[in-house]
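Attaching the record inline, Q. Sequence:
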Amino acid sequence: MARGRKINSNGERSKQLLLEKAVELFSEKGYHDTKISDIVKAANVTQPTFYLYFESKDSLYNDLNKRFQRGFDEIMSKHSEEVVKGIEGLVRTLKQKIKMLFVYILENPKLTKIGLFESEQSVIVKSQLTQQLISLIHLHDCEHLLQLYSVDINVAVDSFVGSLERLILTTLLEQKKLPCELANELINLYFLREDKYKHV
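Structure, as predicted:
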């Protein structure tokens, strides 16, 4: 919170405006071509107002990245009270979570451009997503099923995350498929290999 400002004050509105305009400018022009003067002009506030809330352009950019990452983490770290073991439980959980991620991305396309594709922290976000997916596979006791591919579980999940990233760009953000439809197709491709699983 800003120094000397109360929540819901005009100051908090100024901070929100700065964040909103920064997302727009960073996603359109990139980090290096966006200046603090551009952000304060777009938000219609003064430069001293900017420094009430953010130490620098870098700190504002990091704040936006953390906001994006929190949204991802909240979706992926939520577990239902009852965990259904096996491939059916894993597939159901993954479809639900990936659909929620896709909805979140569609609600925040410019923040996604920054947090998932352009910032240095995007590598960390994708690495954490890989680890969260591996944890889900272990939670549902499905790691032995993935070994039927004769590949390392990390390779399989990294491939999944790479496909996820590509489909977000080429299909989801282009609105060629609905979140539910795309989530189902992606999960079916990677995790519903009936020819591999039917005898297990």
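The chain has a mean pLDDT of 87. The two ends are 54 Å apart (CA to CA).

More tomorrow.
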